[in-house]
Amino acid sequence: MADHLEASVTLPSDPASVAAARTYAVGTLAEWGLPADADLCETVRLVVSELATNAVQHTLGQSPTFTVNLVLDRDERLRVGVTDSHPRFPKRLPAAVQQDNGRGMVIIRWLTAEYGGRLRVRPTREGGKTVSIELPWAPPGRPVAPAGVTAGQSAVTPAGGLLDPAVPDA
Prior knowledge:
This protein has 3 helices and 5 strands, in the order E-H-H-E-E-H-E-E. The protein has 170 residues and is an alpha+beta fold.
């Protein structure tokens, strides 16, 4: 496999584009050798779905398109991001039990942490933002285990505390 692979697609900010974004991401990962039924592929599918949904729903019509970017570096890490042209960064909302939405970024943060990755939000030069995750990549045949976590264990932070995805970063 090449040392560096990149793929991107720009889609209209329309609810139907969320499914297209998921399909594109999974198809790209398959081209790069990751089976569609792999845990990492399922994680990326969910993250892309959440980020694309946010780009459609929360840009208030001010971002006519969004772009899904995938980058694989040296068979070591995978970056997945969604860029839109709205300047407002995502806000962590309190997720009430009865609430139908507001949990997307919490889910993304939790999944990313489970794989030993990280979540980033950066402004673009054009005044928008990119919300991205970076995850470890294992070549096909070598499973990706969540960093520092074995079956039946809870995720632990570097400081030794339990990872609580609902708690903001310090």
